[in-house]
Amino acid sequence: MRTRENRVDAATAGTDLEHVLLSREQVAARIAELAAELDRDYADKDVLLVGVLKGAVMVMADLSRAMSIPLSMDFMAVSSYGSGTKSSGVVRILKDLDTDISGRHVLVVEDIIDSGLTLSWLLANLSSRGPASVKVCALLRKPDAAKVEVDVAYVGHDIPNEFVVGFGLDFADKYRNLDCVATLAPHVYS
Ligand SMILES: O=P(O)(O)OC[C@H]1O[C@H](OP(=O)(O)OP(=O)(O)O)[C@H](O)[C@@H]1O
Ligand code: HPA
Ligand SMILES: [Mg+2]
């Protein structure tokens, strides 16, 4: 049987992780704090959470369930990393919103802000659609990796400039289902 204690090992088939930066408990605790803050800030607003697929799927699921105000959800799928560990800088929309966001209060939910290129492009794109407001909530941010400055109202954790996986974050589309945030052992890249 898979227990809490062995879950990381089970999900990674043993030795793929190098270092766990954030445990499942640390992530859950911070998401609960962010949800409480968002509940207060959006108490009198009809908020639309926009999850950026695929990476934001876990944050979106946990954050939205930790919030208690009425809210709506929609998703966009964009990609700039492909199968590598560096942003290509070219953002492609793979799936657009179903919702007309003009006049809406939009909260973009992201797993990570790394170079900032994806978010900077996305904010320009969403702002051109005439929303009442657009803010961002990201679980992780790498301050030392920023190539463009983006205004992020809600940040879970600032982390070092290392490639990380888990909690929605992938390497070559794997490891998204890890319940912690971790770096990968060098042999995984070779
Ligand atoms: O700040 P940046 O350097 O732009 O990196 C952050 C973006 O990169 C990742 O998405 P990716 O393009 O890998 O797609 P995915 O969410 O499907 O993994 C991540 O989910 C963010 O959206
Ligand atoms: O550190 C990262 N890991 C996985 N995907 C990412 N996309 C941007 N940065 C990262
Ligand atoms: Mg990715």
TrEMBL record:
Protein's cellular compartments: Cytoplasm
CDD domains listed in its UniProt record: PRTases_typeI
EC number: 2.4.2.8
Major subcellular site: cytoplasm
Keyword Repressor: no
Pfam families: Pribosyltran
GO molecular-function terms, A-Z: guanine phosphoribosyltransferase activity; hypoxanthine phosphoribosyltransferase activity; magnesium ion binding; nucleotide binding
Residue stretches making up the Phosphoribosyltransferase domain: 24-171
Origin superkingdom: Bacteria
Gene3D superfamilies the record matches: 3.40.50.2020
Keywords: Cytoplasm, Glycosyltransferase, Magnesium, Metal-binding, Nucleotide-binding, Purine salvage, Transferase
Gene Ontology terms describing biological process: GMP salvage; guanine salvage; hypoxanthine metabolic process; IMP salvage; purine ribonucleoside salvage
Cofactor: Mg(2+)
Catalytic activity as recorded in UniProt: GMP + diphosphate = guanine + 5-phospho-alpha-D-ribose 1-diphosphate; IMP + diphosphate = hypoxanthine + 5-phospho-alpha-D-ribose 1-diphosphate
Pathway the protein takes part in: Purine metabolism; IMP biosynthesis via salvage pathway; IMP from hypoxanthine: step 1/1; Purine metabolism; GMP biosynthesis via salvage pathway; GMP from guanine: step 1/1
Keyword S-adenosyl-L-methionine attached: no
GO cellular component, one term: cytosol
UniProt similarity note: Belongs to the purine/pyrimidine phosphoribosyltransferase family.
Protein name as it appears in the record: Hypoxanthine phosphoribosyltransferase
Native organism: Kineococcus radiotolerans (strain ATCC BAA-149 / DSM 14245 / SRS30216)
